[in-house]
Amino acid sequence: MKGTKIEVGRMGGPGRAGRLTGSERRRQIVRVAASLFAEKGFVATTTRELAAACGVSEAVIYKHFSGKEELFETVLRQKMAEVDVSPYLESLPSDISLLDAFRAVAGRILDIGLGDPLIQKLLLAATIAGSPEAQKLYLSWRQPFTDFLEKRIRRGIDQGEVRPVDPVLTARAFIGLVNDCVLNCNLYERFGFGDFNKENSISNNVPIFVRGIAVDGKIGS
Amino acid sequence: MKGTKIEVGRMGGPGRAGRLTGSERRRQIVRVAASLFAEKGFVATTTRELAAACGVSEAVIYKHFSGKEELFETVLRQKMAEVDVSPYLESLPSDISLLDAFRAVAGRILDIGLGDPLIQKLLLAATIAGSPEAQKLYLSWRQPFTDFLEKRIRRGIDQGEVRPVDPVLTARAFIGLVNDCVLNCNLYERFGFGDFNKENSISNNVPIFVRGIAVDGKIGS
DNA sequence: TTGTAGTTAGTAATTGCTTACTCATTCGCG
DNA sequence: CGCGAATGAGTAAGCAATTACTAACTACAA
Q1: Are residues A114 and A205 in the same domain?
Q2: Are A50 and A32 in contact (CB under 8 A)?
Q3: Residues B45 and B114 in one domain
Q4: How far is B163 from chain A (nearest CA, A)?
Q5: First-to-final CA distance of chain B
Q6: Exposed, middle or buried: residue A50 (CB in 10 Å: 0-12, 13-18, 19+)?
Q7: CATH code, B34
């Protein structure tokens, strides 16, 4: 990989100029590793490359991690910790309208997914590499949204505002639609998705879905 | 990778038992390579592994391909040739109903995507590996469906049966929803998608979408 | 004898990882 | 206060194994 961007330590740190403290270095390594693992996958990212991108020798990686695999798992766990969508969902009003619920979910997925492309790319990398963290990352990324919408759809059916659709299939479908937008923007962006606009996408797609599940006349668009 | 499945040649072929003809061997190598590249990606798949899975030595690979990269490009091109959805779309009646159009597209994507998981996995592998074939495979996999639905939606708007939704965004959203099902079944199947049922998915999701874009009262469910 | 399909034994380069060492800073003791 | 020891962050050099790939050779059928 050419043109590796080297993140060097700050000047005036502990001792020699350019040196980082141990924990600073560890954080840097994890940050740089996340980027490279997300872009190239686990195997295609070499420890030489990781070290070079951090501006240190390979041995430094092994001062902080037992091996490449532990570094990868650490990256995945940290990314998982960053992706906690539950507080956001819990902050939504419990009597949220159907339209607002779908809009909020779509907006959040797009905000997070587009704001931090590494999430989805690391999920792919972890899944392909067969990492045990992959499933956790997958579930932490999707499950809260799916559960939230499933609940809201069930309540809508109970209250007569939603047709008897399958709540699980419907929630998954909508989450899938939004995640596909994220996937295209993050992974396939050079294949013709440079024109993606979040607001346009939400404005167009959310009403389609909400009208599609609503009992006739119950929900205005 | 343990437990590599070896495809040995047939007994009673040319000359020595177990030997294949040149073209048979080439086809076998491509088939086996498709499977391994799809599962592990380009870099993580070694030529040693490829040869072992074919039951030959590595040098045989180089009797048929100039190198690993050429083999990969060959795999991608062949898969692209296998994925030709245009004939199917062209076989659909030109006055197809909205519901039938969406249903046909969803059915086809699911049939192909689930019937041949390698398509999507190779697309991912090619994209991550930065292969020039990746964009072609991406477009050949998605563009025909997107174009077809976009056209049908435009006609629906013109004819007053579809609300003034954005045809491109809407088509992409629906294709995305279906492709996400395929992605989940193919890549994330061990994370809780073993229960996917194609007919249920279509029966639930297609009407939602069609009702969502239809002018009120124009389309029954 | 020739052609075909294959193998063996190798190459140079790369990989993940280790170890002995360096150097600057800090600390503690006399 | 000065000096030596300890510490922390890092490097250079190297390891064994693996990698993509090659060249010379083998064996058998036609």
Answers
A1: yes
A2: yes
A3: no
A4: 10
A5: 49
A6: buried
A7: 1.10.10.60
Whether residues B112 and B165 fall in one domain: yes
A15-68 pLDDT per residue, tens: 666 789 999 999 999 999 999 999 999 999 999 999 999 999 999 999 999 999
The answer to the question of residue B5 being in a domain is no
The answer to whether residues A97 and A41 belong to one domain is no
CATH number of the domain where residue A95 is located: 1.10.357
In B4-132, alpha helices (H): 22-40, 47-54, 58-64, 68-82, 86-90, 98-115, 118-129
Give me the sign of the Cα torsion angle B193, B194, B195, B197. positive
Query: CA A31 to CA A7: how far, in whole Å?
Result: 10
Q: How many CB atoms lie within 10 A of CB A58?
A: 14
B151 is a domain residue: yes
Q: What is the pLDDT of residue A3?
A: 39
Interface test with chain B among A163, A187, A199, A208, by most B beta carbons within 10 Å? A208
Structural domains in chain B (count): 2
Same domain, A114 and A184: yes
**Interface contacts (A, B; CB < 8 Å):** 131
Going by the DSSP 8-state scheme, the letter that residue B6 receives in this structure is P
> Which pLDDT tens digit goes with each residue over A79-100?
999 988 999 999 999 999 999 9
Q: Which of residues 9-68 of B touch strand C (CB under 7 A)?
A: 9, 14-15, 19-22, 25, 55-60, 63
**For residue B15, what pLDDT is reported?**
56
Give the domain extent around A175: 83-213
Write the CB contacts of A88 (distance below 8 Å, at least 6 apart in sequence).
A108
User: ipTM surpassing 0.85, yes or no?
Assistant: yes
The token pair at A7 is 């993140």
Q: Quick check: B204 and A138 CB within 8 A? A: no
